[in-house]
Structures are given as structure tokens and as C-alpha cells.
Write a structure and sequence with these properties.
The chain has helices at residues 2-28, 36-55, 60-89. The chain is mainly α.
């Protein structure tokens, strides 16, 4: 029970950190200052954790947390690629 609560709290923290960055990137149309390697590492870690979670007994909150995190980091990676192309094409 306590692990589930901690998992949901972790997800709330990740959402409150990741999604405002996504919105900021959209408004600025830039991901300047973000480390691509850092974001890529987080994305890969979440993908791997999600895969492991699907094959091992894992609280639902942690599985959802991994999925939401993976989506958020994936969106940031997409933004990095999209805005880099725009900057290079200008």
C-alpha cells in the first residue's frame, strides 16, 4: 500500500517537472539549454524499466509512472529534433 502511494507521488513529481518544460519548449519553440544525452538517457531508462515492470511483479503505480515518464521524455526528444531542424533550416 505505501509503495503504491509513493509510486503515485513520484508520478506527480515527474509530471510537475516534465510537462511544464514541454509547454515552455512549445512557447519558446526551442529546447536550448537542455542536454540531449540527458533526456535520451532518461527516456531509455524509462523504456527499460517499463519492459522489466511488465515481466516482474511491479505495483501498477510504478508501471504507469514509467509509461507517463517515457511519453514525456519522448515528447521532449521529439521537440529537440523538430526545433533543431528548424534552426538548421533557417
Amino acid at each position: 500500500m505505501i509503495i503504491d502511494v509513493l509510486g503515485w507521488i513520484a508520478m506527480a513529481i515527474i509530471i510537475s517537472a516534465t510537462w511544464p518544460q514541454i509547454i515552455k519548449n512549445l512557447k519558446r519553440k526551442s529546447t536550448e539549454g537542455l542536454s540531449p544525452l540527458f533526456i535520451l538517457s532518461l527516456f531509455i531508462a524509462m523504456v527499460l524499466f517499463l519492459i522489466v515492470s511488465l515481466f516482474r511483479p511491479t505495483p501498477l503505480s510504478l508501471i504507469v509512472n514509467s509509461g507517463v515518464s517515457m511519453i514525456g521524455y519522448g515528447v521532449v526528444l521529439f521537440q529537440m529534433a523538430m526545433y533543431q531542424k528548424r534552426a538548421g533550416g533557417s
